[in-house]
Write a structure and sequence with these properties.
The protein has one domain: Alpha-Beta Barrel (TIM Barrel), CATH 3.20.20.70. It is about 35% helix and about 15% strand. It has 11 helices and 10 strands. The protein has an 8-stranded mixed sheet with strand order 1-2-5-6-7-8-9-10. Strands 3-4 form a two-stranded parallel ribbon. β6 (about 155-160), α6 and β7 (about 180-185) form a beta-alpha-beta unit. α4 (about 105-120) packs parallel to α5, α5 (about 140-150) packs parallel to α6 (about 170-175) and α9 (about 235-245) packs parallel to α10 (about 270-285). The chain is globular. Residues about 1-15 have low confidence and may be disordered.
Length: about 300
């Protein structure tokens, strides 16, 4: 579909291997605590068929999530709306970047039908970043929340939104649909943004989370970071403090896993004890919930994070 905003779609390479900011890849083999089973089970195959039947995308597949087997076998999935091509090219992400072609106003209905077919009581909805759209796709987010609630009364909805380029009106559009949880991931520490997320801005992401609380003080907000990209422990703790200063309620912390040789290398693998220390520090800061473990991703155990 042509750009609604008229702005050019910006696509950057994943990263340059000779970039001086890119340190050596971790030479050690992936540790045993990062081993996951291959996806199996009737529920996994049923959900895969359901996603195909409704012509939907999931971030579970597009981002090659290591928890897809566990989550799909328990009949939970994170729906990826607004197509599966992202206008940004973050150096950590497996989602395809380029010129999007999809803008399907019927998508909210189809997501809602899938939620009803799965008999979900908690739905997670995210999207690619759509800088080519005037509202960044905010309207489709809002309509999907409303469609899910209409199709499955009592179902709670969590949204994982892009930064909308800092557009307050776009954020307000999503908040007006009253998501149970509004998630926006900062992904990494401030120092690494120009390398890891060259088309994003650390301060802008924090400001978006803070603005959500200003516009809807009762709104539960959430964010997440990856570790293993070359950050220090002090920087991780600083990012957690910044999130609390933005009144973020829930935070997820997980190990970065390199999707391919074309993505940033892993600098180091953190062990489970280190993740436990991050969780303890987050609790001290006053987060409502901290989900911190090697395989944690932003929507992993999302229902439990939000109170069951």
């Amino acid at each position: 579909m042509p750009s609604e905003s008229g702005k050019p779609v910006r696509v950057t390479p994943r990263y340059a291997a000779d970039d001086p900011r890119v340190g050596p890849a971790a030479g050690a083999r992936r540790p045993e605590w990062l081993t996951v089973r291959a996806p199996i089970g009737d529920h996994y195959h049923d959900l895969k068929a359901l996603v195909r039947a409704h012509r939907l995308h999931t971030v579970c597949e597009s981002a090659r999530c290591p928890n897809i087997g566990e989550c799909w076998q328990s009949r939970t999935a994170t729906f990826l709306i607004l197509g599966n091509i992202c206008t940004r090219g973050c150096a950590f992400c497996a989602v395809t970047s380029g010129q999007p072609t999809e803008y399907d106003r019927d998508e909210p209905r189809r997501v809602a039908e899938a939620v009803r077919a799965l008999d979900l009581r908690y739905a997670v909805i995210t999207s690619v970043t759509r800088d080519d759209l005037a509202d960044g796709g905010a309207l489709i987010f809002a309509e999907t929340i409303r469609a899910v609630r209409a199709a499955v009364p009592g179902c709670r909805a969590e949204v994982l939104i892009p930064d909308f380029q800092g557009d307050a009106a776009a954020l307000a559009t999503v908040l007006d649909a009253h998501p149970d949880v509004l998630n926006h991931n900062i992904e990494t520490v401030a120092r690494l943004y120009s390398l890891v997320r060259p088309q994003a801005d650390y301060a802008r992401s924090l400001a978006l989370l803070a603005l959500a609380k200003e516009l809807a003080p009762a709104q539960t907000t959430k964010s997440g970071i990856m570790v293993g990209l070359g950050e220090t422990t002090d920087e991780i703790e600083g990012a957690l403090r910044d999130l609390r200063a933005a009144r973020c309620d829930i935070v997820t912390i997980g190990q970065y896993l390199r999707p391919s040789a074309g993505h940033l290398p892993v600098h180091r693998y953190y062990d489970p004890a280190e993740f436990a220390r991050f969780a303890a520090y987050g609790a001290e800061l006053g987060f409502q919930h901290v989900e911190s473990a090697p395989l944690v991703r932003s929507s992993y155990h999302a229902r439990e994070q939000a109170g069951g």
